[in-house]
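Reopening this one. Same input as before:
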Amino acid sequence: MVYFDPQRYQSFLFEEREKLTQRAHELKLKIGQEEGAAQSWSRPAQKAMEQDLEVVLAQLEGVERKIREFESLAKKTRTPQGKVSLGSVITVRADGREEVFMIAETGDPQFGILSAHSPVGQALMGKARGARVKVSASGAASEWEILKVETIGN
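Same output, byte for byte:
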C-alpha cells in the first residue's frame, strides 16, 4: 500500500539535506587541503573529488527544490473547487485497495508523491471526488476511483 505521510517526507528531506551539506563540506575541505599540499594528491584524484563535489551540490539543489515545493504546497489553504491540483492529497481506490498520494511538480514514488506531469498525474488533475480515472502505470492499465481530495495545509 502506498501512503503519503507529510511528516515522514519532510523528515527525509531535512535529513537528506543535512547529509549532503556535510558531504559537500568534507569535499570542499579535501579539495582546499589538496590545493595547498605539495603533490600529496594526484591531479586525477583532485579532479575526481571536484566531480564528486559537483554531483553532491546538484543533489543538494534538488533536495532544496523539493523542500521549497513542499513548503509552498503546505501553505495552500484549500484545493480549488475540491478538484485535484498541485498540493492535493488524494485517496483513491485502485485494484480494490485504498492508496494515498500527494500531487506535486516532481514525483517521489517511494513517498507516495505523484508528479502532476506524469501520465497518472495528468489523468488525475482537475478531477473531483467520485471521479473514475483510467490510469496506465508500468504498462498496466487500471481504473482508479477518487475517494477524497484534500490539501496538506488543511
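So the earlier flakiness isn't reproducible anymore. For the record, Helices lie at 6-36, 43-74, 119-124.
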